[in-house]
Write a structure and sequence with these properties.
Helices cover about 35% and strands about 25% of the residues. By secondary structure, the protein is an alpha+beta fold. It is globular and about 35 Å long. The mean pLDDT is about 95. The protein has one domain: 2-Layer Sandwich (Beta Polymerase, domain 2). Helix 1 packs antiparallel against helix 2.
């Protein structure tokens, strides 16, 4: 059975999330163990990715703590507890630049682990 992080990564990848970055937040933030950041090219795709992450997590028995920003679909946050998934519209991702904001957090290469 995949870990929560693997499950979230696969859900994002299945819905063609682009430029997926996983940050190891352990020791950097108390919010979560991992942040996953990706983007999509349309509001509909942003919503599809966020919904797939939430649906797959729920199906696997994980509790989806909250989902924010779904209706506007510019930046959707899916809080799974230990993993927080940030799904951006491509136009918003560079503006918020979470990768730089959390630059102290090491990046994980999930693609190699697939």
């Amino acid at each position: 059975m995949p870990t929560l992080l693997e499950l979230a990564y696969n859900a994002v990848d299945d819905k063609k999330g682009e430029d997926i970055v996983v940050l190891n937040m352990e020791g950097v933030s108390l919010i979560a163990d991992h942040f996953m950041i990706c983007h999509a090219n349309s509001e509909r795709q942003v919503q599809a990715i966020a919904k797939e992450v939430a649906d797959q997590a729920a199906e696997a028995g994980y509790h989806v703590k909250r989902m924010e920003g779904y209706d506007l679909a510019r930046w959707v946050l899916v809080d799974l507890g230990d993993v927080v998934v940030h799904v951006f519209h491509k136009d918003e991702r560079g503006y918020y630049n979470l990768e730089k904001l959390w630059g102290d957090a090491p990046m994980l290469n999930m693609a190699d682990e697939k």
